[in-house]
């Protein structure tokens, strides 16, 4: 593998050819040409769909679709491709765990422990479930470093805790707890752990077996793949315990007016015609990622973020919510509203996000109504970093007038 080269890497992203400064990769990553080509080829050259038709093209497609499941299993070191369920993304995967695994196991008074740093996708499904079953969502607060507070965990985990929901990496701070420690503590009360890997997988694909993760969710679109495709990893024994929460074509082996027999896992969770183009695009992204020096790429984006953070820190009223050396920079500028700044930055051609980042409870914990968030990816360069700093100064000058 050749060492990471930022110029070569950047050249693979056609969306960057028309200038513009893209600093919103935590929302969604841009797509390299290989992913665009794979998706386009699927629509222009493939015939049929998967797991349904007998003709050769459709059979080939089914093999490709199932092979991609194996690629995901390899990426996160799952024991088998059968532990990977295709979903629409992280949100869909977490809702599947909520409805198919946790719901039938919840009794009134049971507890679901959720970190305060969670994206709404890893909070609202548990709130919905709690409201429907009489269970309780318990908050796991953050420490001064903006990470879920490990010192509180032993007392928050009780005999009533059925599930602990936590993200590998926050989409606001870029930080996350030591998963091995979290999981070991959860085990001591018999709780299962749902890890939201939407951000984490981009920076550090986990070894789900070594960490002993029960459920892990991620979205393809943050990992250079298409939108509308993602995956749920579940330990085989847990997936076996789950009944499907969606019924439809191909999730069953027999059906009559008295009932149906579900397919084995994972297919019983994949009712209806799946997103085959998404799977093929994601498969292309994963194949391509294997050719990239990911450690070098990560160092590059972290370095750009650090250098930018140093310059931003010189601005009066700058307040940072960045954990460690994350490539994600969340910040506010005292007495200037984030929406005003982001509007002016957009006028200068800088794409970044401002607001609550689907993490309202986290914003409340930080004591802010929202933040600006510049998320650096390996396709960003020095000019992008400089453009952000200079456009921000320009915006603040205008707002000061
Ligand atoms: N969790 C985190 C930490 C995220 O950043 C996101 C995407 N913003 C999600 C969950 C939800 O992902 P998706 O919208 O792709 O389902």
TrEMBL record:
<dbReference type="InterPro" id="IPR015421">
    <property type="entry name" value="PyrdxlP-dep_Trfase_major"/>
</dbReference>
<dbReference type="InterPro" id="IPR010970">
    <property type="entry name" value="Cys_dSase_SufS"/>
</dbReference>
<dbReference type="InterPro" id="IPR022471">
    <property type="entry name" value="Cys_desulphurase_CdsA"/>
</dbReference>
<dbReference type="GO" id="GO:0016226">
    <property type="term" value="P:iron-sulfur cluster assembly"/>
</dbReference>
<dbReference type="InterPro" id="IPR015424">
    <property type="entry name" value="PyrdxlP-dep_Trfase"/>
</dbReference>
<dbReference type="Pfam" id="PF00266">
    <property type="entry name" value="Aminotran_5"/>
</dbReference>
<comment type="similarity">
    <text>Belongs to the class-V pyridoxal-phosphate-dependent aminotransferase family. Csd subfamily.</text>
</comment>
<dbReference type="InterPro" id="IPR015422">
    <property type="entry name" value="PyrdxlP-dep_Trfase_small"/>
</dbReference>
<keyword id="KW-0663">Pyridoxal phosphate</keyword>
<keyword id="KW-0808">Transferase</keyword>
<dbReference type="GO" id="GO:0031071">
    <property type="term" value="F:cysteine desulfurase activity"/>
</dbReference>
<dbReference type="GO" id="GO:0030170">
    <property type="term" value="F:pyridoxal phosphate binding"/>
</dbReference>
<dbReference type="GO" id="GO:0016829">
    <property type="term" value="F:lyase activity"/>
</dbReference>
<protein>
    <recommendedName>
        <fullName>cysteine desulfurase</fullName>
        <ecNumber>2.8.1.7</ecNumber>
    </recommendedName>
</protein>
<dbReference type="GO" id="GO:0006534">
    <property type="term" value="P:cysteine metabolic process"/>
</dbReference>
<dbReference type="InterPro" id="IPR000192">
    <property type="entry name" value="Aminotrans_V_dom"/>
</dbReference>
<feature type="domain" description="Aminotransferase class V">
    <location>
        <begin position="21"/>
        <end position="388"/>
    </location>
</feature>
<dbReference type="InterPro" id="IPR020578">
    <property type="entry name" value="Aminotrans_V_PyrdxlP_BS"/>
</dbReference>
<keyword id="KW-0456">Lyase</keyword>
